């Protein structure tokens, strides 16, 4: 699914939050959105999910206006993991993952729904949390359960696992800082899963703060600053010292090693001190 932003601007109380963003996000790619706190990343994701409507401009999914797609149909086309998910009710973990299947069944989940929930919980290594109260989980455990929920939402019930893997898939996965509370192993598990989905044909958009995870997993990066797109393209085109010091007010050294096919970023040191630039 091609996601196109056409000249999107968004204002809240006469304050510009996003300013004339235009680009296409390609299927089969993992696109990472970067930028400092308050740059507009979550707001931008809400435009792509349909949760908010641009003040000006349009978001198109496969050339169709996102806001003209019926809600139920949209729920089977795109899944969203938000930054702050709070459940007011004491659902257990399996029930949270089953929420991803709501668009597919009427009153009761079928056998396929239960199978898919199990598969996705297994993929995110949360089977041992089945039956546990979601509210009582740690932050990272909650994120892993949420990740299982969005995987369950995008998986088509009529396909067997093998068929699902062999067919080119359509669908949009939007993840807002999905790994911010995860340990280093589960960061790799979650982002490898997101990458695998992109290889299967899904359009995957992930907001990250960790530049090294972005360098490792991104096919394309969108770099935002104060609601504007200041750079976009491949990892080495966007993650330059110049772009990053402009976006983050921090000087970074960009290291290359024969061992890795992506750059490694570390805060630059000058006379043994990190170089912080003025904002
Ligand atoms: N409902 C709202 N009312 C007023 N201002 C808002 C609202 N939502 C977002 N903003 C403002 O819009 C700007 C962008 O917010 P957004 O959450 O998109 O940033 P972000 O890049 O995701 O930041 P972070 O990295 O800290 O999560 C911020 O200055 C924020 O205060």
From TrEMBL:
**GO molecular function terms noted in the UniProt entry:** ATP binding; ATP hydrolysis activity
Q: Which residues form the ABC transporter domain?
A: 3-251
Highest taxon of the source?
Bacteria
SUPFAM superfamilies found in the cross-reference section: P-loop containing nucleoside triphosphate hydrolases (SSF52540)
The residue ranges crossing the membrane are none
Q: Which InterPro entries match?
A: AAA+_ATPase (IPR003593), ABC_transporter-like_ATP-bd (IPR003439), ABC_transporter-like_CS (IPR017871), P-loop_NTPase (IPR027417)
UniProt keyword list: ATP-binding, Nucleotide-binding, Translocase, Transport
Described purpose of this protein according to its UniProt entry: Part of the ABC transporter complex HmuTUV involved in hemin import. Responsible for energy coupling to the transport system.
Q: What is this protein called?
A: Iron complex transport system ATP-binding protein
């Amino acid at each position: 699914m091609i996601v196109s932003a056409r000249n999107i601007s968004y204002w809240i109380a006469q304050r510009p939050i996003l300013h004339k963003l235009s680009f296409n996000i390609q299927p089969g790619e993992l696109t990472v959105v970067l930028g400092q706190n308050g740059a507009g990343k979550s707001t931008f994701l809400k435009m792509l999910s349909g949760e908010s409507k641009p003040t000006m401009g349009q978001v198109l999914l496969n050339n169709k206006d996102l806001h003209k797609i019926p809600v139920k149909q949209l729920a089977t086309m795109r899944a969203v993991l938000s930054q702050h998910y709070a459940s007011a009710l004491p659902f257990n973990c399996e029930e949270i993952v089953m929420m991803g299947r709501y668009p597919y069944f009427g009153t009761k989940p079928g056998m396929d729904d239960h199978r898919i929930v199990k598969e996705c919980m297994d993929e995110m290594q949360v089977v041992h949390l089945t039956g546990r109260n979601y509210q009582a989980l740690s932050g990272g455990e909650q994120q892993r359960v949420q990740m299982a929920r969005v995987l369950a939402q995008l998986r088509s019930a009529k396909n067997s696992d093998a068929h699902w893997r062999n067919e080119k898939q359509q669908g949009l996965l939007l993840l807002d800082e999905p790994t911010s509370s995860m340990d280093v192993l589960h960061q790799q598990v979650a982002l490898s899963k997101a990458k695998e989905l992109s290889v299967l044909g899904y359009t995957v958009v992930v907001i990250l703060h960790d530049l090294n995870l972005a360098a490792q997993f991104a096919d394309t990066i969108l770099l935002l600053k104060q609601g504007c797109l200041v750079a976009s393209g491949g990892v080495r085109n966007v993650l330059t010292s110049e772009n990053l010091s402009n976006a983050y007010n921090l000087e970074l050294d960009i290291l290359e090693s024969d061992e890795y096919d992506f750059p490694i970023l570390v805060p630059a040191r000058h006379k043994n001190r990190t170089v912080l630039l003025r904002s």
